Amino acid sequence: MNCPYCNAELEYHDYFGKLDNSMSGISHDGEIYKCPSEGTCESEQFNYFFYTFRDGDLKKGYPC
Ligand SMILES: [Zn+2]
């Protein structure tokens, strides 16, 4: 997975999900990545974060 702005390889940051009342725990909805090119990448406008949802599309910013 590469940064769509600077083409650097994104670093895995974390996964995200939301509380699921029907199961004990958190559903795993997607992955969070971060661009390593701090200071030089245009993804600075959303703090270098990207994420994927279940469909696998890379989205900009931090999921919340
Ligand atoms: Zn970048």
Bin the helical content: under 10%
Mass-distribution shape: elongated
Query: What proportion of the residues form beta strands (DSSP E)?
Result: 25-35%
Count of distinct structural domains: 1
Number of helices: 0
Largest sheet: 4 strands, antiparallel
Order of H and E elements: EEEE
- Kindly, what is the distance between the CA atoms of the first and last residues, rounded to a whole number of angstroms? 21 Å
Structural class: mainly beta
Residue windows where pLDDT falls under 50 for at least 5 positions: none
The average pLDDT value, as a whole number, equals: 91
Task: Tell me what the structure shows.
The protein has 64 residues and is an all-beta fold. The protein has one domain (11-60). The chain has strands at 11-16, 30-34, 49-52, 58-60. The chain has a four-stranded antiparallel sheet with strand order 1-2-3-4, with no helix packed on it. The chain is elongated, with a radius of gyration of 13 Å. Zinc ion is lined by residues 3, 5-6, 8, 35, 37, 41, 43.
Compile the SSE list and pairings.
Blueprint: E1 11-16, E2 30-34, E3 49-52, E4 58-60
Zinc ion binds next to loops.
Brief sketch in words of this structure:
The protein has 64 residues and is mainly β. The protein has one domain.
Keywords:
mainly beta, 64 residues, elongated, binds zinc ion
